[in-house]
Design brief:
Elements: H1 4-13, H2 19-24, H3 35-47, H4 51-64, H5 69-84, H6 87-97
Helix pairs in contact: 4-5
Length: 107
């Protein structure tokens, strides 16, 4: 996230950075105090999402970091059908229409 040059510098030198520098160079997304409250908030937000969609997004974003661009686009297209036909997708659309929070089951 911080760029290859910065990553190599930190890895090769073992230099320690403080929180402000870590934020400035993109090593961290934010600085929160207390950190545990932010972690719980993020965990609750993630827990409210479809487990299938989170799994697929994690796989695709990790895959996008390397490999063939055309193959990565094919993988995105293939998984779109999987996601769209899931019970979670149907629940999400139904909840939206009914103006309520969805209850995802990971299926």
């Amino acid at each position: 996230m911080c760029g290859l040059g910065v990553a190599k510098e930190l890895i090769f030198t073992g230099r320690v950075v403080d929180a402000e520098e870590a934020l400035r160079i993109g090593l961290v997304n934010g600085i929160h105090d207390p950190v545990l409250d932010k972690a719980r908030e993020t965990a609750a937000l993630l827990a409210s999402k479809s487990p299938i969609a989170l799994r697929v997004m994690k796989e695709l974003s990790n895959r996008a970091l390397g490999g063939d661009h055309a193959a990565n686009l094919d993988a995105e297209g293939d998984t779109f059908g999987e996601l769209f036909s899931s019970d979670d997708a149907k629940e999400g659309m139904t909840a939206f229409v009914e103006k309520r929070e969805p209850v995802f089951r990971g299926t």
